What does this fold into?
Amino acid sequence: MTYDKDNIFARIVRGEIPCHKVYEDADTLAFMDIMPQAEGHTLVVPKAAGEDIFTTPPESLAAAVHTTQRVARAIKKAFSPPGIMVAQLNGPAAGQSVFHLHFHVIPRYTCKDLGIHAADPADPAALAAHAARIRAAL
Ligand code: AMP
It folds into this structure.
């Protein structure tokens, strides 16, 4: 598959589509997943093009992992979940639905099942409030 420069995350990175921004630096962007699998579910993307772990430049991957750690720490502080899951899917068979590399950072709670992947759009006001909570904890 060739990289589609107009995929939804590339458009978010370019500012053509709004997002609930959590963090941004020169190389990465973090924003709320609009169909969260748990409250606080955040996505981290490198700004550089690359659809998956195979085609994203290693320096972009490194920057994204650095931001993922930063965001995971802030989510831990903001939501106090006992666990945090980091996931990164490659290819439709793995469940990837947006073909611009991204890390999912998802709070996890004991005895609470994960919500269904990319299924239930959240209330935009709740997403804005969650983004503000995470930003305040960065
Ligand atoms: P994946 O299936 O790993 O490619 O994950 C893509 C994720 O992007 C899913 O969890 C979707 O809920 C999420 N998503 C899709 N469109 C948007 C959007 N416009 N803003 C934020 N998250 C999105």
